[in-house]
Amino acid sequence: MTMGKFLIRRLLQGIFVIWGVITIMFGLRAVSPGDPATLMLGEGATQELIEHVREQEGLNEPIYVQYFDYLQGMVVGDFGYSWISNREVEAMVIERIPATVELAVAATVVAIVIAIPLGVISATRRNESADYGATLFSLLGISTPNFWLGLMLILILGVWAGIFPTGRRPVGFAEAVMTLVQHGSLYDLGIWLQYITLPALTLGTYFTALITRLTRSGMVDELGKPYVTASRAKGLPSVLVRYKHVLRNTMIPIITVLGLQMGTLLGGAVITETVFNWPGLGLRLIDALNARDWPLMQGIVVFIAIAFVSINIIVDSLYTYLNPQVREE
Questions:
Q1: Strand pairing partners for 88?
Q2: Which of 20-24, 200-204, 312-316 has the lowest mean pLDDT?
Q3: How far is CA 8 from the centre of its chain?
């Protein structure tokens, strides 16, 4: 299979997934209790005004007509208006993307910095205390709920120790960088680092445990191969063999997982953003859910689906380019 055909197949699969998400979200809105017109206007609205809004929004149309109208709007990028704030959904989604991306990237950095060295140590010291400690850390990281870990970090490091702030961040990463470039001040960047540390640790813990186990497994497999024995027989330093050759060959599946997990982090930051009041898409999704603002909920979920599918296609394409055997499979 050529690279072009592979990409076309992946794109078609991605479009089908996004269509499925859109359909499910529309179906959930259709079967949810309550009148959308009443939600938009409030409980005190008159019946005449409610009927006017229902007619204006097409809510009196058959369900299949509403579905095709909604699907057509999604195709051209029209996500509609928020029922509560009466703002364009696209604008409300776009303005929260930077904060979510900041948190996802920071969690990925935390995972890489902690997990890869820990996995290397665990693999090179098998059946020792370091290996057992890394294995225990991985099990705890995978099994610990994010919301509980976030609350514990806030309680211990934020409230009791007073090391990190616990409120909403006062400055974003882009604003902090602009301050650094324009005024040469690191103050805003330091504030941003203080506020993002605990959310990044919370969101990155599961990711860290996953990468640690993956690194250890890959390192153990590579250390048993003949080229490692030959390199050591030639007198090469063990550190050089370990990091230049063994870890390098182990990084291919790790990079693949890193790319795929970025999509997961974008969608999985909902709980973490809620716990830390982080102004991202996750927090906005919870606010929309509490207010039953269906257009906003649909827009956020569809955007997360598009981001997840896009990241998967990019990672698959890169991996296929590096390893053409994947296309044949």
A1: 81
A2: 312-316
A3: 25
Whether 154 and 227 map to the same domain: the answer is yes
d(CA 329, CA 325): 7
Q: What is the DSSP letter of 158?
A: I
Domain presence at residue 120: yes
Domain assignment of residue 77, yes or no: yes
Q: Tokens representing 207? A: 């990711």
- pLDDT single digits (tens) 223-278: 878 887 787 777 777 777 777 778 877 877 787 777 777 777 776 678 888 899 99
Please indicate, yes or no, if residue 191 is contained in any of the structural domains.
Answer: yes
- The predicted pLDDT at position 79 comes to 84
Closest CA to 132 of 144, 118, 145, 115: 118
For residues 228 and 245, the answer to whether their CB atoms sit within 8 Å is: yes
Instruction: Determine the 3-state secondary structure of 88 from DSSP.
Output: strand
CA distance to 19, 55, 77, 189, per residue, from 72 (Å): 11, 19, 9, 43
Is residue 33 predicted with pLDDT exceeding 80?
A: no
- Give whole-number Cα distances, 223 to 115, 240, 245, 322, 326, in Å: 18, 13, 10, 22, 24
Residues 48 and 147 in one domain: no
| Same domain (yes/no): 12, 111 | no
Pair of tokens at residue 155: 């309680």
